[in-house]
Design brief:
- With 277 residues, this protein is α/β, with parallel strands linked by helices.
- It has one domain: NADP-dependent oxidoreductase domain (TIM Barrel, Alpha-Beta Barrel).
- Helices cover 39% and strands 15% of the residues.
- The strands form 2 sheets. An 8-stranded parallel beta sheet has the order 3-4-5-6-7-8-9-10. The chain has a two-stranded antiparallel ribbon with strand order 1-2.
- β7, α5 and β8 form a beta-alpha-beta unit.
- α3 packs across α4, α7 crosses α8 and α7 runs antiparallel to α10.
- The protein is globular and about 55 Å long.
Length: 277
């Protein structure tokens, strides 16, 4: 696995896996019903088998307990894992400073860990006092060593600008939807300019047939699929990605992007195909 260095000195795997639907009655990929327990949690097991160590979780997904259970059964050294979660600022009204401590405690308990590698504000809300209290709580938890890195999710350039004006310590990452056309490109560029690591989700969605043809043609040079070419492209643009899949084959393909490198011409072709200037 490759890593990027964050602005706080910590490192983050360049590819992780989204978990918002994990452990929720996804049975089709269980061989002979051989799952972890009565429910279908094979997607978590297969992700671990395929080498994933960065799990993008959230309180609002309501599945951290089963994710923690499966991970604990693998007996993986904690230092090899990168566990991330999020404060549910949009799912609960008026999240307070103390609420943040409660949410983080729940994540620690459910994920069977003594610290979190990353904790995010899941969404910006218009109540600026609430935002300041939530962010301050995360920073204080970082000082205590309970959280290694603090970040935000789906923050626009304007929202990040406000946060940077209010606090001396900037977030380590901003997690953003990353689709062709990249409506969030300005936000991503702002992150890069301010040494905030962009992390993309939904990275394999909304790919046009024309773009797939172009990506597949490039992939043919390396015996790679369009998915792998696109994920490699984002990696070479210094973006972390967290694609989600319940299919073990797709999971393995998504993480198998480190044995080839796109040249400058190919990078330019892909940028044009995805309407990225």
């Amino acid at each position: 696995m490759e890593y990027f260095k964050l602005n706080d000195g910590n490192k983050i795997p360049v590819i992780g896996i989204g978990t918002n639907t994990f452990g929720k009655q996804n049975r089709e990929f269980c061989e002979n019903g051989n799952c972890i327990n009565d429910h279908s949690f094979c997607e978590i097991k297969s992700a671990l088998d395929n080498g994933y160590r960065y799990f993008d979780c959230a309180i609002s997904y309501e599945n951290e307990d089963i994710i923690g259970k499966v991970i604990s059964e693998f007996k993986i050294d904690r230092s090899e894992l990168f566990l991330s979660s999020k404060v549910p600022t949009r799912h609960y009204e008026n999240v307070t400073y103390d609420d943040v401590f409660k949410f983080v405690s729940k994540s620690l308990k459910d994920l069977r860990t003594t610290y979190m590698d990353l904790y995010l504000i899941h969404h910006y809300v218009d109540d600026k006092e609430q935002m300041k209290n939530v962010y301050q709580a995360l920073l204080d938890l970082k000082k205590e060593g309970i959280i290694k890195s603090v970040g935000v999710s789906s923050f626009t350039k304007e929202q990040l600008t406000w946060l940077l004006e209010e606090f001396d310590e900037k977030p380590a990452i901003n997690q953003l939807m990353l689709n062709p056309g990249m409506k969030s490109l300005e936000d991503i560029e702002y992150c890069i300019e301010n040494d905030i690591q962009p992390v993309g989700y939904s990275v394999l969605k909304n790919i046009s047939d024309t773009s797939r043809i172009i990506l597949n043609a490039i992939g043919a040079n390396y015996d790679k699929s369009w998915h792998q070419v696109l994920l490699r492209f984002y990696f070479q643009m210094n973006m972390v990605t967290i694609p989600k899949s319940h299919n073990p084959v797709h999971q393995l393909n998504n993480i198998s992007i480190f044995d080839f490198k796109l040249n400058e011409v190919e990078m330019g072709i892909i940028r044009k195909a995805l309407y990225i200037r």
